[in-house]
Specification:
heterodimer; A: about 250 residues; alpha/beta; D-Maltodextrin-Binding Protein, domain 2; 2 domains; six-stranded mixed beta sheet; five-stranded mixed beta sheet; 11 strands; about 40% helix; about 20% strand; B: about 270 residues; mainly alpha; MetI-like fold; 14 helices; about 80% helix; about 0% strand
Chain lengths: ~250, ~270
Amino acid sequence: MTAIATSVLALAGCASTPAATTAPKTSVSGSIVVDAAASLTGIFDEIATDFKKSHPGVTITFNYGGSSALATSIVSGAPVDLFASASPATMKTVTDANLAKGTPTTFVSNTLEIAVPAGNPGKITGLADFADASKKIAICAPEVPCGAAAVAVFAATGIKDKPDTLVPDVKTALTQVSLDEVDAALVYHTDVLAAGSKVQGIAFPEAQKAINNYLIAPISSSKNLALAAAFETFILGKDGTAVLKRAGFTIIG
Amino acid sequence: MADLRERRGSGIPGILWIPAGIALAFLVLPLVALIGQVPWAQLGQIIATSDIGQSLGLSLGCGIAATAVSLVLGVPLAWVLARSSDWHPAIRRTLRALVIVPLVLPPVVGGVALLLLLGRHGLIGQFLNSWFNIQLPFTTPAVIISEAFVAMPFLVLAVEGALRAADRRLEDAAETLGASRWMIFRRVTLPLVAPGVVAGAVLCFARALGEFGATITFAGNFPGVTRTMPIAAYLALETSPPAAYVISLVLLVVSVGVLFALRDRWVSGLSS
């Protein structure tokens, strides 16, 4: 009990320390928590590393997860300063609760891609193979953004998909692909790039019918809106967009 | 005996009431908060429109099957562990640690481990696939395997504890009367440790019902095949939290009901 109390005090002390005195060039200081869609994992860390070069002394903590779960936690009062969601619908959860500061910015988009194990052992050629019951197929559950996009693509193309499993997030799908337990999964282009050599991607023309937009907004209940806004501006600036582009995102605006 | 107990009252030192009360509140209040969020007005409608019934049936069926598997395999393992006092301590400790591994392993990692063992390219799975054309991932048996993997240690630990506390002289007496080893196990040892077996089975069943991580990774999620209640609740939370609260409530009520029913039946059956 004492140990917990001490560490809480230490944390509180950290947060209130005026770091600005050691960073004369900038007006922002302190720390923020950024909730970001799971597909931004690692990418925002890289942007934050660049950001800290010009803003020494600031602390940015990331919490990556499914956008809907993150939005739910923000509405439930999680202390978050900046939120990047993988779909307009999940950002709407936050704006409906009047928790977004200003209008959220649509900053990047992501395109669906077929992920297959290295070497494509299931001999997948296109989206039509998702209707083949003899192939092992993983698709995101319709409740999560990647699944909503999959539903949109199948509805637009009239392909009757026959999945073996409806995964709760992209990472589960990629685990099953990389272990060659499924022949194909429908994920995003950036996920395929991030998955490494055990997964390869097959682009398909129908993906244009379900492009996924990402939105970002500071959270109005933030105690450090200055830093949240500064980091958001940096993400949307040339340094941030360069990192996002390299990860496979399409830059908007 | 009864008089003595009555005179002593509960025999609980006053100071223990405070932490005991905090512990109970700590365990129960989150459930109270959850139940407070249940949309009672829409309860019937949510249950009717969602496929809760299907998920519940699957959850109960797989939970009972996983408990049965754990009983058949876990009780003998507990017996071996409890009676391994003649073995080298290092072997004994290693064995006991290995039994606990599934408890320590994050369930999702456990699911990946099961894929690596039993998947179509797994250590054993590749032979199941090429020799018998059996592919376990994404099937209902895979749900039972995932649940048994994470839940069996609870049963093994409970039964082993009961076996070690049991009076072995009763077994010795049976032996001098000419009973075979199997008969001693069945007629003396097992009835002696029955409360431990029931407690272990209850823990095991409860853990199996709540299993999520290993199941979704190894068995996947498909309505009617592998979508158990915890997975249904998790997905409902994404789009419609009230439905998730209802699913949790149904799972809670049914599992508590099943546990009470089984316990009453078993325990009364034993004492009569």
